[in-house]
Amino acid sequence: MLIMKIITSKNNRASKQNMIRVVAVIVFNLDNYIRSCKLLPDGRTLIVGGEANAICIWDLGQQPRIKAELTSAAPACYALAISPDSKVCFSCCSDGNIAVWDLHNHAIVRQFTGHTDGASCIDISQTPIINMDPSINNVLFSFIIIIQGRQLQLHDFSSQIFSLGYCPTGDWLAVGMESSNVEVMHCSKLEKYQLHLHDSCVLSLKFAYCGKWFVSTGKDNMLNAWRTPYGASIFQSREQSSVLSCDISSDDKYIVTGSGDKKATVYEVIY
Protein backbone atom coordinates (compact mmCIF):
# COMPACT_ATOMS: atom_id res chain seq x y z
CA MET A 1 0.00 0.00 0.00
CA LEU A 2 1.31 3.43 -0.93
CA ILE A 3 0.93 6.13 1.70
CA MET A 4 1.45 9.82 1.09
CA LYS A 5 1.23 13.03 3.07
CA ILE A 6 1.36 16.63 1.87
CA ILE A 7 3.43 19.03 3.97
CA THR A 8 2.73 22.71 3.39
CA SER A 9 5.98 24.62 3.62
CA LYS A 10 6.02 27.21 6.43
CA ASN A 11 9.29 28.86 5.53
CA ASN A 12 8.68 28.81 1.77
CA ARG A 13 12.39 28.69 0.99
CA ALA A 14 13.17 30.65 -2.16
CA SER A 15 15.85 30.14 -4.79
CA LYS A 16 17.79 32.40 -7.13
CA GLN A 17 16.27 35.92 -7.24
CA ASN A 18 13.15 34.67 -5.38
CA MET A 19 11.69 33.41 -8.66
CA ILE A 20 10.37 30.16 -7.16
CA ARG A 21 9.33 28.99 -3.70
CA VAL A 22 8.36 25.61 -2.27
CA VAL A 23 4.65 25.43 -1.48
CA ALA A 24 4.31 21.74 -0.60
CA VAL A 25 6.29 18.54 -0.15
CA ILE A 26 4.62 15.17 -0.73
CA VAL A 27 6.24 12.29 1.16
CA PHE A 28 5.76 8.76 -0.18
CA ASN A 29 6.32 5.83 2.16
CA LEU A 30 7.65 3.53 -0.55
CA ASP A 31 10.29 0.84 -0.79
CA ASN A 32 11.27 1.93 -4.31
CA TYR A 33 12.33 5.03 -6.23
CA ILE A 34 9.85 7.38 -7.87
CA ARG A 35 11.01 7.63 -11.48
CA SER A 36 8.27 9.83 -12.97
CA CYS A 37 5.29 11.92 -11.87
CA LYS A 38 2.69 13.84 -13.90
CA LEU A 39 0.21 16.40 -12.59
CA LEU A 40 -2.95 16.59 -14.72
CA PRO A 41 -4.52 19.93 -15.72
CA ASP A 42 -7.32 19.48 -13.15
CA GLY A 43 -4.72 20.26 -10.50
CA ARG A 44 -5.70 17.37 -8.24
CA THR A 45 -4.73 14.21 -10.14
CA LEU A 46 -1.13 13.02 -9.82
CA ILE A 47 0.20 9.98 -11.71
CA VAL A 48 3.29 8.34 -10.20
CA GLY A 49 5.53 5.65 -11.67
CA GLY A 50 8.79 4.10 -10.55
CA GLU A 51 10.60 0.94 -9.53
CA ALA A 52 7.39 -1.08 -9.34
CA ASN A 53 5.05 -2.76 -11.82
CA ALA A 54 2.12 -0.53 -10.80
CA ILE A 55 1.56 3.09 -11.82
CA CYS A 56 -0.49 4.89 -9.16
CA ILE A 57 -3.17 7.50 -9.85
CA TRP A 58 -3.58 9.81 -6.84
CA ASP A 59 -6.48 12.09 -5.95
CA LEU A 60 -4.87 15.09 -4.23
CA GLY A 61 -8.00 16.27 -2.45
CA GLN A 62 -8.20 17.17 1.24
CA GLN A 63 -7.63 13.49 2.03
CA PRO A 64 -5.21 12.22 -0.66
CA ARG A 65 -5.91 8.69 -1.83
CA ILE A 66 -5.07 6.25 -4.60
CA LYS A 67 -7.89 6.25 -7.16
CA ALA A 68 -6.45 3.46 -9.32
CA GLU A 69 -3.37 1.40 -10.12
CA LEU A 70 -2.22 0.60 -13.66
CA THR A 71 -0.40 -2.72 -13.52
CA SER A 72 1.86 -3.99 -16.30
CA ALA A 73 4.12 -6.98 -16.84
CA ALA A 74 7.26 -4.81 -16.69
CA PRO A 75 8.95 -4.56 -13.27
CA ALA A 76 9.49 -0.77 -13.53
CA CYS A 77 8.21 2.40 -15.20
CA TYR A 78 11.00 4.80 -16.20
CA ALA A 79 8.92 7.69 -17.57
CA LEU A 80 5.37 8.93 -18.13
CA ALA A 81 3.72 11.24 -20.67
CA ILE A 82 0.13 12.47 -20.85
CA SER A 83 -1.79 13.26 -24.04
CA PRO A 84 -2.93 16.90 -24.47
CA ASP A 85 -6.55 15.92 -23.74
CA SER A 86 -5.46 14.03 -20.55
CA LYS A 87 -7.28 10.90 -21.72
CA VAL A 88 -4.21 8.75 -22.45
CA CYS A 89 -1.03 7.98 -20.50
CA PHE A 90 2.17 6.67 -22.12
CA SER A 91 4.55 4.70 -19.88
CA CYS A 92 8.14 3.81 -20.77
CA CYS A 93 8.79 0.36 -19.37
CA SER A 94 11.99 -1.30 -18.21
CA ASP A 95 11.40 -4.15 -20.70
CA GLY A 96 11.75 -1.72 -23.63
CA ASN A 97 8.03 -1.43 -24.39
CA ILE A 98 5.86 1.70 -24.37
CA ALA A 99 2.42 1.04 -22.90
CA VAL A 100 -0.53 3.25 -23.85
CA TRP A 101 -3.16 3.50 -21.08
CA ASP A 102 -6.78 4.67 -21.19
CA LEU A 103 -7.00 6.83 -18.04
CA HIS A 104 -10.79 6.50 -17.85
CA ASN A 105 -10.98 2.70 -18.07
CA HIS A 106 -7.51 2.12 -16.53
CA ALA A 107 -6.60 -0.38 -19.24
CA ILE A 108 -3.83 -0.79 -21.84
CA VAL A 109 -5.14 0.11 -25.29
CA ARG A 110 -1.90 -0.25 -27.25
CA GLN A 111 1.75 -1.20 -26.81
CA PHE A 112 4.81 -0.21 -28.85
CA THR A 113 7.89 -2.43 -28.92
CA GLY A 114 10.87 -0.30 -29.82
CA HIS A 115 13.96 -1.21 -27.79
CA THR A 116 15.95 -4.19 -26.60
CA ASP A 117 16.71 -2.37 -23.33
CA GLY A 118 14.50 -0.10 -21.26
CA ALA A 119 12.79 2.93 -22.81
CA SER A 120 14.10 5.77 -20.64
CA CYS A 121 11.90 8.79 -21.42
CA ILE A 122 9.19 10.17 -23.68
CA ASP A 123 7.49 13.43 -24.68
CA ILE A 124 4.47 14.24 -26.81
CA SER A 125 3.69 17.20 -29.05
CA GLN A 126 0.58 19.31 -28.55
CA THR A 127 -0.81 17.94 -31.83
CA PRO A 128 -0.93 14.45 -30.11
CA ILE A 129 0.49 12.55 -33.11
CA ILE A 130 4.22 12.89 -32.38
CA ASN A 131 6.14 11.23 -29.58
CA MET A 132 9.85 11.03 -28.97
CA ASP A 133 11.34 8.04 -27.25
CA PRO A 134 15.03 7.36 -26.50
CA SER A 135 16.61 4.02 -25.71
CA ILE A 136 19.07 3.37 -22.91
CA ASN A 137 20.81 0.83 -25.10
CA ASN A 138 24.55 1.06 -24.37
CA VAL A 139 25.53 0.54 -28.00
CA LEU A 140 23.45 3.17 -29.81
CA PHE A 141 22.41 6.38 -28.07
CA SER A 142 19.48 7.68 -30.04
CA PHE A 143 15.95 8.89 -29.96
CA ILE A 144 13.16 8.29 -32.42
CA ILE A 145 10.43 10.66 -33.57
CA ILE A 146 7.26 8.68 -34.26
CA ILE A 147 4.16 9.94 -36.09
CA GLN A 148 1.02 7.82 -35.78
CA GLY A 149 3.06 4.75 -34.87
CA ARG A 150 5.50 5.18 -37.77
CA GLN A 151 9.17 6.08 -37.29
CA LEU A 152 9.97 9.46 -38.86
CA GLN A 153 13.49 10.39 -37.73
CA LEU A 154 16.40 8.80 -35.89
CA HIS A 155 18.99 10.97 -34.12
CA ASP A 156 22.25 9.57 -32.74
CA PHE A 157 24.33 11.01 -29.89
CA SER A 158 27.73 10.23 -28.38
CA SER A 159 26.35 10.08 -24.82
CA GLN A 160 23.51 8.13 -23.27
CA ILE A 161 20.16 9.97 -23.31
CA PHE A 162 18.42 10.17 -19.94
CA SER A 163 15.72 12.76 -20.70
CA LEU A 164 14.19 14.87 -23.45
CA GLY A 165 11.54 17.49 -24.06
CA TYR A 166 9.63 18.84 -27.06
CA CYS A 167 8.94 22.59 -27.06
CA PRO A 168 5.20 23.39 -27.41
CA THR A 169 6.05 25.94 -30.12
CA GLY A 170 7.21 23.03 -32.28
CA ASP A 171 10.62 24.56 -32.97
CA TRP A 172 12.99 22.97 -30.44
CA LEU A 173 13.98 19.64 -28.93
CA ALA A 174 16.04 19.46 -25.72
CA VAL A 175 17.95 16.35 -24.68
CA GLY A 176 19.45 15.63 -21.25
CA MET A 177 22.62 13.53 -21.39
CA GLU A 178 24.59 11.16 -19.17
CA SER A 179 27.53 13.50 -19.81
CA SER A 180 25.72 16.21 -17.72
CA ASN A 181 25.10 18.38 -20.80
CA VAL A 182 21.76 19.56 -22.16
CA GLU A 183 21.59 19.81 -25.95
CA VAL A 184 18.94 22.01 -27.58
CA MET A 185 18.41 21.43 -31.30
CA HIS A 186 16.10 23.06 -33.83
CA CYS A 187 13.54 20.73 -35.38
CA SER A 188 14.08 21.84 -38.96
CA LYS A 189 17.32 23.86 -39.05
CA LEU A 190 20.97 23.03 -38.35
CA GLU A 191 20.94 25.05 -35.13
CA LYS A 192 22.09 23.57 -31.83
CA TYR A 193 23.07 24.76 -28.35
CA GLN A 194 25.00 22.83 -25.69
CA LEU A 195 24.25 23.87 -22.10
CA HIS A 196 26.16 22.97 -18.97
CA LEU A 197 25.18 23.70 -15.37
CA HIS A 198 24.64 20.19 -14.03
CA ASP A 199 27.53 18.32 -12.40
CA SER A 200 26.10 14.88 -13.16
CA CYS A 201 23.66 13.15 -15.52
CA VAL A 202 20.49 15.04 -16.46
CA LEU A 203 17.62 12.84 -15.30
CA SER A 204 14.53 14.79 -16.42
CA LEU A 205 13.56 17.74 -18.58
CA LYS A 206 10.34 19.65 -19.26
CA PHE A 207 9.37 22.73 -21.31
CA ALA A 208 6.96 25.32 -19.96
CA TYR A 209 3.70 25.43 -21.90
CA CYS A 210 4.54 28.94 -23.16
CA GLY A 211 7.72 27.48 -24.69
CA LYS A 212 9.88 30.37 -23.47
CA TRP A 213 11.74 28.37 -20.80
CA PHE A 214 12.33 24.82 -19.62
CA VAL A 215 13.59 23.01 -16.53
CA SER A 216 16.00 20.13 -16.05
CA THR A 217 16.86 18.03 -13.01
CA GLY A 218 19.86 15.88 -12.20
CA LYS A 219 21.67 13.39 -10.08
CA ASP A 220 23.50 16.42 -8.62
CA ASN A 221 20.30 17.29 -6.63
CA MET A 222 19.69 20.36 -8.81
CA LEU A 223 16.63 21.85 -10.46
CA ASN A 224 17.72 24.27 -13.23
CA ALA A 225 15.55 26.57 -15.34
CA TRP A 226 16.81 27.72 -18.75
CA ARG A 227 15.78 30.28 -21.36
CA THR A 228 14.75 28.72 -24.69
CA PRO A 229 16.80 28.03 -26.78
CA TYR A 230 20.21 29.43 -25.84
CA GLY A 231 20.10 28.37 -22.20
CA ALA A 232 20.53 31.50 -20.07
CA SER A 233 20.04 30.47 -16.43
CA ILE A 234 16.74 31.74 -14.96
CA PHE A 235 16.77 30.08 -11.53
CA GLN A 236 18.25 27.15 -9.63
CA SER A 237 17.18 25.16 -6.59
CA ARG A 238 19.07 22.43 -4.72
CA GLU A 239 17.17 19.53 -3.16
CA GLN A 240 18.32 16.98 -0.59
CA SER A 241 18.82 14.08 -3.01
CA SER A 242 18.86 13.23 -6.72
CA VAL A 243 15.93 14.80 -8.58
CA LEU A 244 14.60 12.01 -10.78
CA SER A 245 11.61 13.63 -12.47
CA CYS A 246 9.76 16.90 -13.01
CA ASP A 247 6.62 18.38 -14.51
CA ILE A 248 5.09 21.85 -15.04
CA SER A 249 1.43 22.84 -14.61
CA SER A 250 -0.51 23.93 -17.70
CA ASP A 251 -0.54 27.58 -16.53
CA ASP A 252 3.27 27.53 -15.98
CA LYS A 253 2.77 28.60 -12.34
CA TYR A 254 3.88 25.39 -10.63
CA ILE A 255 6.74 22.90 -10.98
CA VAL A 256 6.64 19.46 -9.35
CA THR A 257 9.71 17.26 -8.85
CA GLY A 258 10.14 13.66 -7.69
CA SER A 259 13.30 12.78 -5.79
CA GLY A 260 15.35 9.85 -4.57
CA ASP A 261 14.38 10.47 -0.94
CA LYS A 262 10.75 9.50 -1.73
CA LYS A 263 9.43 13.06 -1.87
CA ALA A 264 7.60 15.12 -4.47
CA THR A 265 8.19 18.87 -4.10
CA VAL A 266 5.81 21.49 -5.51
CA TYR A 267 7.33 24.88 -6.42
CA GLU A 268 5.45 28.07 -7.19
CA VAL A 269 6.97 30.11 -10.02
CA ILE A 270 6.99 33.81 -9.11
CA TYR A 271 6.98 36.14 -12.13
From TrEMBL:
<keyword id="KW-0677">Repeat</keyword>
<dbReference type="GO" id="GO:0003714">
    <property type="term" value="F:transcription corepressor activity"/>
</dbReference>
<dbReference type="GO" id="GO:0005634">
    <property type="term" value="C:nucleus"/>
</dbReference>
<dbReference type="InterPro" id="IPR001680">
    <property type="entry name" value="WD40_rpt"/>
</dbReference>
<dbReference type="InterPro" id="IPR009146">
    <property type="entry name" value="Groucho_enhance"/>
</dbReference>
<dbReference type="GO" id="GO:0090090">
    <property type="term" value="P:negative regulation of canonical Wnt signaling pathway"/>
</dbReference>
<comment type="similarity">
    <text>Belongs to the WD repeat Groucho/TLE family.</text>
</comment>
<feature type="repeat" description="WD">
    <location>
        <begin position="70"/>
        <end position="111"/>
    </location>
</feature>
<dbReference type="GO" id="GO:0005667">
    <property type="term" value="C:transcription regulator complex"/>
</dbReference>
<protein>
    <submittedName>
        <fullName>Uncharacterized protein</fullName>
    </submittedName>
</protein>
<dbReference type="Pfam" id="PF00400">
    <property type="entry name" value="WD40"/>
</dbReference>
<dbReference type="InterPro" id="IPR036322">
    <property type="entry name" value="WD40_repeat_dom_sf"/>
</dbReference>
<dbReference type="InterPro" id="IPR019775">
    <property type="entry name" value="WD40_repeat_CS"/>
</dbReference>
<dbReference type="InterPro" id="IPR015943">
    <property type="entry name" value="WD40/YVTN_repeat-like_dom_sf"/>
</dbReference>
<keyword id="KW-0853">WD repeat</keyword>
